[in-house]
Request: fold
Amino acid sequence: MRRLLNLLAILSLASAAFFVEVPGSAFGGDVASESGSTISVGVSSDSSSPGNTGTTAGNSTVGGGSDTGGAASFVPVCTSTVLALNNDVGPPAGVTTPGSWYSIVCTTSSGGTTTTNPWIPNGSAPTIPAATPAVNPYALAMQAENSLQLPSPTINFNPATNAVVNLPTWLWIDPALWHPYVVNATVGTVTATATATPESVSYNLGDGDALTCPGPGTAYRTDQPSAEQQTSCSYAYPSTSSAQPSPDGNPNDGAFRVTATVTWQVSWSAQGAPGGGGLPSLTTSSATNLRVEQVESVNS
Reply:
């Protein structure tokens, strides 16, 4: 008990304290990167099938920071104090090298501190803990986005088989895919969440024209009168597809190649670290053929 009281008194005097800030090169070798950490990725969505990985849109802007690298090195700052009273006890068992006991307190990447009490031989510098990688939440969010599995759209028309010149053709995709898709990526105590939300559907109509619709479109109901239905996504072809390539080689079966592209806006948030904002948008697409016929009216 008397020795403990004397030890506390000596520590309060801090008779031989010094402050050490260790450069990165003092750690002996390369600092570990985030790529070496174990990353668990889980998918949460209402879709019964994952579909295809989205494609990054070329004209998208990146939000939430420009650092897309892995982990940023954290350099601990340490305070070392000689424990003079402990020196009266002598070195650890089996150690004959002259030296001193030290108390080394170092900051951690999470904002806390660690304390060690090593025996350090005379003439040797205190051993400072190696740098640890600080998780970059934005880079983690990008990894989550890269794991998103987004469904490809299936194109539907009305008329369902062949469109007619100057008659509005309804276009829509399955509304069941029109909801957010979420992926979480975790490294240590940091979790980044990437959420992809469908924004619009763009159609390349095959005749040189294009159409963008803000939602999935409205399915045509064959069990309801046409006069009671309306759509927000339709297109009237001004000419037939007779001069277009034929999928079966029959020149009478020429068709326009229609492509639907869904644009997904992606956002991210983080737990265990600050951050959040936008990520590069993604797209998924599919294509199908559509014949457009000219219907001649006959006067009686």
Remarks:
- Confidence is low (pLDDT under 50) at residues 1-53, 56-72.
- Residues 169 and 294 are 14 Å apart (CA to CA).
- Residues 2-13 form the longest helix (12 residues).
